[in-house]
Amino acid sequence: MSDTRVKKAGGKESGVNETGVKEAGVKEAAPQEIRTSPEGKPVEYYLRDRFMPHIWCGGCGHGTVLNGLIRSVDELGLKKREIVMVSGIGCSARMAGYLDFHTLHTLHGRALAFATGVKLSRPELTIICPLGDGDALAIGGNHFIHAARRNIDMTVLILNNRIYGMTGGQYSPLSGCGIDASTAPYSTIEDAFDTVTLATAAGATFVARTTSFHVHELQDTLTRAIRHKGLSVVEVLSQCPTHFGRKNGNLEAIQMLKDFRTGTARIGSRQLENNPGLIPRGIFVEKDKREYCDHYLDVIERARGKSGASR
Question: In the chain, fewer beta carbons within 10 Å around the N or the C end?
Fold first, then answer.
């Protein structure tokens, strides 16, 4: 993972025998490097090493998002046993398997339905749902709008690479017009959803957008989203050089990251004011509203009271 602090680990030097005498002709090993989080825990502390190396292609942005999520969890001081990752199917869904939290790898498009059940049964847990284009807004679109409408307390992380990467490069609801894909050899003719507008209209009380290029902004946004009580939606523009890039101008990962840098701008910035065609980034919605589980507890209390009165 990039952008990590490094410290030197102590330990016995190679070339030293059990009596402590250095053996002649044996080269000393370089000190081991341990990647650490901002709070000092090893990054590996949060990972399931048995599932490494990961399956993501070289240049994929999802690893950067995973890095930002680990640092956010570490910054918040959350314990691993307090977190449940719920995912569906696809490249983004693999994130749940790599993190050493409670995890549910569920049906395609149904992650938010499973997550809702977990939250209602154990409201004290922190729920994070990493979703791709389809899991969130195609087969999972119905669950998405109703999770937002209910304002249930969980963080929905939408990794938008504008393509279905795991299944061969089909176009998605976030591809947009004029995009080449395996299911659109003569280019797409459909407009993309605006995730921010859709989430806002559906009732999400925290809505943000960032990119895999803006790594510090990504971590800060995730921290605020997880801390927020209510339905938080964070769209992350994440590059897919393997399918989207190859089919659309042979774009390499570096070029796609440069496009995130030059093609987006912070909301409220002079850059966006002067060029409204840029994709806006930042936090669009952050408001307080009573959360769904709190309402549901009221229902339980009313039901108990009515049941007791009838006895």
Answer: C
The angle that helices 292-309 and 111-121 make with each other, rounded to 10 degrees, is 50
DSSP state of 266: E
Asked if 155 and 129 count as a contact pair (C-beta separation under 8 A), the reply is yes
Q: Round to whole Å and give the CA distance between 155 and 73.
A: 12
pLDDT digits (tens, 9 = 90+) for 208-265: 999 999 999 999 999 999 999 999 999 999 999 999 999 899 899 999 999 999 999 9
Given a contact cutoff of 8 angstroms between Cβ atoms, the answer to whether 6 and 36 are in contact is: yes
Helix %, strand %, coil % of the chain (to 5): 40, 20, 40
Q: 235 lies in a domain?
A: yes
Give domain status of residue 277, yes or no.
yes
| Helix, coil or strand: residue 264 | strand
Structure tokens at 29: 């090993």
10: in domain: no
Q: How many domains does the chain have?
A: 1
CATH of the domain at 256: 3.40.50.970
Q: Coil, strand, or helix at residue 75? A: helix
Q: Which residues contact 26 (CB under 8 A, 6 or more apart)?
A: 14, 15
Enclosing domain of residue 201: 41-309
d(CA 79, CA 46): 10
Range in 16-25, 212-221, 300-309 with the lowest mean pLDDT? 16-25
What pLDDT was estimated at residue 85? 96
On whether residue 20 sits in a domain, the answer given is: no
Q: Are 91 and 75 in contact (CB under 8 A)?
A: no
pTM of the model: 0.84
Do the beta carbons of residue 156 and residue 112 sit within 8 Å? yes
